[in-house]
Amino acid sequence: MYGLSRYLIIITFITIVVVFSATPAQSARLKDVAFFEGVRSNQLLGYGLIVGLDGTGDKKGAVYTNQSVANMLNKLGMKIKPEDLSLKNTAAVVVTAELPPFSKKGSRLDVLVSSIGDAKSLQGGTLLVTPLKGPDGQVYAVAQGPVSMGGFVAGIGGTSVSKNHQTVAKVPGGAFVEKEVLFTLEGRRELFLTLRHPDFTTARRAAGKINSSFGGQMAIARDSGSVSIIVPAEYRDNIVVFISKVERLVVVEDTVSRVVVNERTGTVVIGKNVMISTVAVSHGDITVQIKADIEVSQPGAFSEGDTVVAVSEDIEVFEKPASLVLLEQTVTLGEVVTALNEVGVTPRDLVAILQALKSAGAMQAELLII
């Protein structure tokens, strides 16, 4: 006799009833939600060499590394051919940095070095003099110095242990600014304020706040992302003071209602202004288990009986008590979360629920799935 079991699971059906209203947005300084046009950082890029590695540099097949070292040595007065070099302690890297606005000559910048070859680790290396260029091809900074990665690698081959990423490192304060970005505020009669998150309501509020604070119609919201400001006559000789006062003004930032969902991790982030229409909620599980047993009746030896196969089925249905929750109109998101927890909704269940609510038109918010 032998047995065979089969299990059939019917998917859980979940419906939710949630009603809650929007809450006021938080106030913020203008300097936190906007910036003045032209006052921005610039990206710098360079190609360099890191030397002094403990046999963890680029292998012999990295032609560009050999060529770079040969060019450097030739400039130093040595006649070396790339094919004559066998390097293990050198790695070719891309060097990147960010040049803050109004950086002056001699200012220091942090730089990031990233291996572009097959180096195993940059630990213990030193970056050689590397010019850093802007998008216009001009050199704005020069970097050099020992790299720092805050990690280690120990062991050989399959028995090695490493901490942190070994092919990316930093050179804190390793670059000096050699050229300033040509931008000045002196003599400007009009400034443009750019919102970090364009929104018509926020732009209108920002313009209104500036006008009410300085007593005039100097600010106009041009579109959802910018506000033009006429510099008052009393501040034209000291525009930095005017900008400082504008940055400290507090406005109420308005944003689009949004729900962010990460299906891979089951993470759900719900904004304050999300509104959901009234819908019914029920939560329950139904499990159907079918068990089939096959019995074989074998006649005795030398008898005239036949072999008989008998199949018996045992069907059981398990149903968990369904949960039906009616939520009165709620004001805070915490009350909604508490109610959902009482229903027993898991984060992954909530992902499916939100998608269904959006498809049904019951959720007045943008659903962003990442």
The structure class reads alpha+beta
Distance between the termini: 53 Å
Gyration radius over CA: 34 Å
Strand elements, count: 23
What's the number of helices?
A: 6
Fraction in beta strands: 35-45%
What characterizes the major β-sheet? 6 strands, antiparallel, barrel
Largest sheet: spatial strand order: 4-5-6-11-8-7
Spatial shape = flat
Helix content: 10-25%
Low-confidence stretches: 1-24, 286-290, 327-333
Mean pLDDT, to the nearest integer, reads 77
Report what the structure shows.
The protein is of the alpha+beta class. The chain has six helices and 23 strands. The strands form seven sheets. A six-stranded antiparallel barrel has the order 4-5-6-11-8-7. It is flat, with a radius of gyration of 34 Å.
Offer a few descriptive terms.
370 residues; alpha+beta; Aspartate Aminotransferase, domain 1; 6-stranded antiparallel beta barrel; 4-stranded antiparallel beta sheet; 6 helices; flat; disordered N terminus
Task: Annotate the secondary structure layout.
Blueprint: E1 2-15, E2 27-29, H1 30-33, E3 34-36, E4 42-51, H2 63-75, E5 91-99, E6 108-115, E7 126-133, E8 139-146, E9 152-154, E10 161-163, E11 168-177, E12 190-195, H3 200-214, E13 219-221, E14 226-230, H4 239-247, E15 250-252, E16 258-262, E17 267-270, E18 275-276, E19 282-297, E20 308-319, E21 323-324, H5 333-343, H6 347-360, E22 363-364, E23 366-369
Parallel strand pairs: 16-23
Antiparallel strand pairs: 1-19, 2-15, 3-12, 4-5, 4-7, 5-6, 6-11, 7-8, 8-11, 9-10, 12-14, 13-14, 16-17, 18-22, 19-20, 19-21
